[in-house]
Amino acid sequence: MERSPHDETSAVDAAPAWRMLGWLAAAELLGMSLWFSATAVTPSLVAAFHLSPGETAWLTMAVQGGFVIGTLATAIANLADVFPAKRLMGAGCIAGAMANTAALLAVSPLTLIATRVLTGAALAWVYPPAMKLVAGWFRRHRGVALGVLVGALTLGKATPHLLTALFGGDWRTSMSFTSTLALLGAAVALGVVRDGPLAVTAARFDLGAIRRILAVREVRLVTLGYLGHMWELYAMWAWVGAFAAASLAAGGMGEVTRPAALVAFVAIGTGAVGCVLAGRLADMLGRSRIARASMVLSAACALGTALVYSRHPVWLVLLVAVWGFSVVADSAQFSALVSEHAPPDAVGTALTLQTSLGFLLTMVTIDALPRVASVAGWQWACALLALGPVCGTVAMAGLGRPHTAG
Questions:
Q1: CA distance 21 to 153
Q2: What is the end-to-end Cα distance of the chain in Å, rounded?
Q3: Which domains does the chain possess?
């Protein structure tokens, strides 16, 4: 049934929109808990499958690689604009849960890593479609709305670390639990979530959509800023536990597995607060301005890791809390800016393309960081991550006057 203009105007940013955001955030949190389900129990998987250092690195990068494959295929085929976003999201949660559960049946490192690739590919249908759904419900408060969604994603990715901190490193229990959470996310997406009044009617397949998207100067600049942000984000999330463990051990702590997992949960979990607060400020002060400020702060924290290494754990926790807060605070604003500047009939594809390019870059730093640490030590390795947000800040300055939501 068609909606009248009055219905569309009254629903945007109103109570129904905020209620729908709550359901979307819940589905996102539950579905994205699959992302670090293996990373959080890496020591147990190394012991169970006798993983080599190279295989261990690929275990971490496999989800990124699968996600890149999934998002690229989705962008090229315009799936995020051709099919209803809620159905893609639900299907992604279900497929991800199945792939994650398949790891319990793995008999070799290769099959284990393959299940992680499939998990990442499935999650390509969870994150970008959710962003498109939010854009369909919010206009004036799109910054904070996307901030809430990315905050939920952040908590979802922190969940496996919390499970490890509370219950130890039993990998089978952790991965089974996160698969169950993802299935609950599918139920929410398919049973409760619906399109908003700003949603564009399903588009036809357009092989030239990517060309049209990249022809927009603002989209190109925002994407460059996003790449600088992604250079740092996932390498920080993936290896902050290893950095914490090394720092605690160097400081004289004995058993470090659970304390390091708790530090990792703090580092990732505080990002949820950063996403929401940055979104609120972005709606008032401008998206590009808040994105630049977040990158400057996170770059400073990356450099500051050398100062807190082996110090009292309080300093470590304080540093990673601020770092975790700032490292992802700008993420939603890049998405909001792309959703506002991309062609209206290709928003889903634009968000998927941006996400795909960013996650492709994350594989570089996820692989490089432990290599640098093996040579220079974890005390100095994280400084490498500051390069991304510095370059991203420069790129975002090219947008000129910060965007202000109206």
A1: 13
A2: 29
A3: 5-195+202-397 (1.20.1250.20)
| Residue 92, CA distances (Å) to 25, 34, 53, 368 in order | 15, 11, 30, 29
pLDDT at 13: 65
Cα 191 versus chain centre, distance: 24
Q: How far apart are CA 295 and CA 197, in angstroms?
A: 33
pLDDT in tens, 194-225: 988 876 655 554 557 778 888 888 888 999 99
Locate the DSSP E strands across 77-199: none
Task: Kindly state the helix (H) or strand (E) to which residue 77 belongs, with its residue range.
Answer: none
| Structure tokens, 347 | 């928003």
Exposed e or buried b per residue across 1-29, where buried means at least 16 C-beta atoms within 10 angstroms of its C-beta: eeeeeeeeeebbbeeebeebbebbbbbbb
**Which segment of 54-68, 199-213, 259-273, 323-337 scores lowest on mean pLDDT?**
199-213
Q: What is the pTM assigned to this prediction?
A: 0.75
**Residue 238 Cα distances to 15, 128, 159, 261, 287, angstroms:** 37, 21, 13, 11, 27
351-369 pLDDT tens trace: 878 888 888 898 899 889 9
At residue 284, the 3 state secondary structure works out as helix
**Does residue 402 contact residue 309 with C-beta atoms inside 8 Å?**
no
Angle at CA of residue 164, ends 189 and 92, nearest 5°: 20
Inter-residue contact 150 to 97 (CB < 8 Å): no
DSSP labels, 136-174? TT-STTHHHHHHHHHHHHHHHHHHHHHHHHHH---HHHH
Tokens 């708790």 belong to 262
* Cβ atoms 28, 81 nearer than 8 A: no
The structure tokens 């807060």 sit at 325
Contacts of 165 (CB under 8 A, 6+ apart): 258, 261, 262, 265
Residue with tokens 């690739």: 117
3-state secondary structure of 31: helix
What DSSP string runs through 312-349? -HHHHHHHHHHHHHHHTTTHHHHHHHHHHHS-GGGHHH
- Give the C-alpha separation, 373 to 246, whole Å: 10
* pLDDT value of position 158: 81
Nearest to residue 351, comparing CAs of 377, 327, 333, 363? Answer: 333
Q: Which two tokens stand for residue 70?
A: 């999934």
Residue with the bigger pLDDT between 113 and 214: it is 113
What percentage of residues in the chain have a pLDDT greater than 70? 92
